[in-house]
């Protein structure tokens, strides 16, 4: 039985990366792989359900750069005791640790699984991701990215020592063809209320949309540090039919009620919310931002694309969608067809094939 260790920044987090990790790790555990998850920090449990056979280790650090030497010692001990066949960094930045701990087991295959697009950087640890990306490209056995688009960026900009593969995220839901939809006149958007998700641009676009479609309502589901700014913007723009109700206890019900989904992000890695929305037969209107969106939304087939950060373009595309109920229905059906390319069995097969050929 092959052993896989997934190295995570924090398995107790509620983000999309952790959700996908729980799906892939549990799926591989069911395929008779021995699966271990090492979490940099956390509260001794996973936020998302895991297969009972999965073993967990927690380093108990407070963050990526806290207790570096202590973390390295613990990781080296884990590698020595677990003796994994494959070590998978769940975020390329963790390669800074793996570069050193790999020496304890030179026979294990090092896989870096990146969830942000090539051009992503963050204000904190500025430039560190770029440095780590170059290091990982030279040292890892396989770099897994989430889209063909992102794979192209790496080929254009980096020299890759090992394999470079794109394996998309799986849909967390199975398409229910007999789904009874309430189909209220709701345009839905879901995500953490952060600047990167572009909800400010969505509200600006909606201020124009609701003038022509006053019977429609926008619902932005999520919580985050931009809440006050978004509420202020809503007031400034005199927006009437838009709500920010916070977290949803049952997000599935929100997808069932909605008729259209909008993604307004400034950039993405591979937005899970689109797979979720498509699984509930929702047509999509989205910015064609980096990266992966254009592989999920086929313009004119299961939705419409607007140029990145083009608020007027997004508004026009939303209005084009809302003006034709038959188009909403047809594009929603096409979403349900297209999302089957991202079903769990298909994605797990790609993971197994990747590991067999590394």
Q: What features would you highlight for this structure?
A:
358 residues; alpha/beta; 7-stranded parallel sheet; 13 helices; elongated
Topology:
Elements: E1 3-8, H1 16-30, E2 34-39, E3 55-58, H2 68-82, E4 86-90, H3 95-101, E5 109-113, H4 128-139, E6 142-145, H5 148-157, E7 163-166, E8 186-190, H6 199-212, E9 217-221, H7 227-236, E10 242-246, H8 251-257, E11 260-263, H9 272-279, E12 284-287, H10 293-296, E13 303-306, H11 311-322, H12 325-338, H13 344-357
Parallel strand pairs: 1-2, 1-4, 2-3, 4-5, 5-6, 6-7, 8-9, 8-11, 9-10, 11-12, 12-13
Helix pairs in contact: 1-13, 2-3, 6-7, 6-11
Description:
With 358 residues, this protein is of the alpha/beta class. Helices cover 40% and strands 17% of the residues. It contains 13 helices and 13 strands. The chain has helices at residues 16-30, 68-82, 95-101, 128-139, 148-157, 199-212, 227-236, 251-257, 272-279, 293-296, 311-322, 325-338, 344-357, and strands spanning 3-8, 34-39, 55-58, 86-90, 109-113, 142-145, 163-166, 186-190, 217-221, 242-246, 260-263, 284-287, 303-306. The strands form 2 sheets. It has a 7-stranded parallel β-sheet with strand order 3-2-1-4-5-6-7, with helices on both faces. Strands 10-9-8-11-12-13 form a 6-stranded parallel β-sheet, with helices on both faces. Helix 7 links the parallel strand 9 (217-221) and strand 10. The two termini are 17 Å apart. The mean pLDDT is 93.
């Amino acid at each position: 039985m092959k052993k896989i260790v997934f190295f995570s920044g924090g398995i107790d987090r509620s983000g999309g990366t952790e959700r996908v990790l729980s799906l892939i790790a549990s799926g591989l555990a069911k395929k008779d792989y021995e699966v271990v998850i090492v979490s940099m920090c956390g509260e001794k449990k996973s936020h998302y359900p895991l297969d009972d056979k999965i073993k967990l280790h927690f380093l108990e650090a407070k963050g990526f750069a806290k207790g570096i030497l202590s973390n390295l010692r613990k990781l080296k001990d884990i590698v020595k005791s677990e003796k994994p066949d494959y070590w998978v960094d769940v975020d390329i930045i963790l390669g800074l640790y793996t570069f050193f701990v790999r020496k304890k087991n030179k026979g294990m295959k090092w896989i870096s699984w990146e969830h942000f697009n090539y051009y992503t950087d963050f204000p904190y640890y500025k430039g560190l991701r770029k440095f780590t990306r170059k290091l990982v490209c030279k040292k890892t056995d396989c770099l897994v990215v989430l889209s063909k688009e992102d794979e192209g960026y790496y080929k254009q900009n980096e020299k890759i020592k090992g394999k470079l593969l794109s394996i998309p995220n799986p849909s967390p839901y199975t398409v229910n063809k007999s789904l009874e939809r309430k189909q209220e006149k709701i345009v839905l958007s879901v995500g953490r209320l952060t600047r990167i998700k572009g909800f400010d641009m969505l509200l600006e676009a909606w201020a124009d949309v609701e003038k022509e479609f006053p019977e429609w309502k926008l619902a932005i589901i999520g919580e985050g540090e931009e809440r006050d700014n978004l509420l202020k913007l809503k007031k400034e723009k005199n927006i009437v039919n838009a709500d920010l109700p916070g977290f949803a206890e049952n997000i599935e019900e929100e997808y069932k009620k909605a008729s259209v989904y909008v993604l307004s992000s400034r950039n993405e890695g591979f937005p899970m919310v689109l797979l979720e929305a498509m699984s509930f037969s929702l047509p999509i209107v989205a910015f064609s931002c980096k990266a992966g969106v254009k592989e999920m939304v086929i313009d004119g087939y299961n939705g419409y694309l607007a140029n990145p950060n083009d608020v007027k373009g997004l508004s026009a595309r939303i209005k084009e969608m809302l003006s034709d109920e038959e188009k909403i229905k047809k594009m929603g059906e096409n979403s349900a067809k297209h999302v089957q390319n991202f079903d769990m069995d298909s994605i797990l097969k790609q993971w197994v094939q990747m590991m067999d050929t590394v």
